[in-house]
TrEMBL record:
<protein>
    <recommendedName>
        <fullName>Ribosomal protein</fullName>
    </recommendedName>
</protein>
<dbReference type="InterPro" id="IPR016095">
    <property type="entry name" value="Ribosomal_uL1_3-a/b-sand"/>
</dbReference>
<dbReference type="Pfam" id="PF00687">
    <property type="entry name" value="Ribosomal_L1"/>
</dbReference>
<keyword id="KW-0687">Ribonucleoprotein</keyword>
<comment type="similarity">
    <text>Belongs to the universal ribosomal protein uL1 family.</text>
</comment>
<dbReference type="InterPro" id="IPR028364">
    <property type="entry name" value="Ribosomal_uL1/biogenesis"/>
</dbReference>
<dbReference type="GO" id="GO:1990904">
    <property type="term" value="C:ribonucleoprotein complex"/>
</dbReference>
<dbReference type="InterPro" id="IPR023674">
    <property type="entry name" value="Ribosomal_uL1-like"/>
</dbReference>
<dbReference type="InterPro" id="IPR023673">
    <property type="entry name" value="Ribosomal_uL1_CS"/>
</dbReference>
<dbReference type="GO" id="GO:0005840">
    <property type="term" value="C:ribosome"/>
</dbReference>
<keyword id="KW-0689">Ribosomal protein</keyword>
Amino acid sequence: VEFDTAMATPDMMGKVGKLGKMLGRRGLMPNPKSGTVVAATDLPRAISDARKGRVEFKLDRTAIIHVPLGKISFEDDKLMGNLTAVVEAVMKAKPSGAKGQYVRSASLTTTMGPGIRLDLKPTLSLSSA
């Protein structure tokens, strides 16, 4: 599969669902929560948004956020821009009632490689939120 995002209209989800084994394994199955199941009239906007890039992150059971920043082929400045966007999105998503230290640590890793711990203060200063 040579794409990063799959989109569908609600009426096509029955047909797209048959591709579940292939798309689901790669995390590409269209989903209304992630904004990839859209009305036909909203499709041009959704495609434009996907091309511009959008920060999507999820917490796992241990409250760790996993989010892709880029690919090995990306230039350093693009990776830094992506890191800044992720930090801003995470800080913006902080619930107003959250108390204590919201982010305790941050690290970068390749898909199967060891993590490199980031210095938290400069990393969090990337956010204007």
